[in-house]
Amino acid sequence: MGTLANALQQLRAERKQAQLQVEKLDQAISVIDSLNGSGTVRQAKTRIISAASRRKMARAQKARWAKAKKASQPIAIAKTTTPAPVVKRTMSASARRKIATFQRARWAKLRAGQQKKAA
Predict the structure, then answer these.
(1) DSSP letters spanning 2-70
(2) Is residue 7 part of a domain?
(3) Rounded distance, CA 26 to CA 32, Å?
(4) Per-residue pLDDT tens digits for 41-86
(5) What is the pLDDT of residue 101?
(6) In Å, what is the CA distance from 49 to each residue of 25, 45, 55, 86, 91?
(7) Quick check: is 5 in a domain?
(8) Which residue pairs from 32-41 have beta carbons closer than 8 angstroms and sit at least 24 positions apart in sequence?
(9) Are the beta carbons of 33 and 39 closer than 8 angstroms?
């Protein structure tokens, strides 16, 4: 039983030495980091903003955008010419028949090619 107690005591001593060595290594790393300028980066705390404050901020931002938009609009110039109206083109019945006939022939050719591949 005495040998187990001695082994346990020895293991605890080794663990303590290892912890001390790790602490020394951490200190050395922090010193080198501070010399290098990288250091530890602190995260900024996020602000908690009430709903009323967010509404005020939103209104103020919308007002700023409206002001900027108003300032950037060009001065209205009197129109001297009006654009020509778009002419809607209609297709004759014979033209529609020709297109339909062409499309039917095209689809028939495509189907024939597919049947040939399947066979």
Answers:
(1) HHHHHHHHHHHHHHHHHHHHHHHHHHHHHHHHHHHT--PPPPPPPPP--HHHHHHHHHHHHHHHHHHHH
(2) yes
(3) 10
(4) 566 788 899 999 999 999 999 999 999 988 887 766 656 667 778 8
(5) 97
(6) 42, 12, 10, 54, 63
(7) yes
(8) none
(9) yes
In a domain, 24, yes or no: yes
Q: What tokens appear for 66 in the block?
A: 């409206």
Q: Rg of the Cα trace of the chain?
A: 42
Number of folded domains that form the chain: 1
What's residue 80's pLDDT? 64
Find the length of the chain. Answer: 119
Report the candidate in 56, 53, 29, 25 with the shortest Cα–Cα distance to residue 40: 29
Q: Is residue 45 part of a domain?
A: no
pTM of the shown model: 0.30
Domain that holds residue 3: 1-28
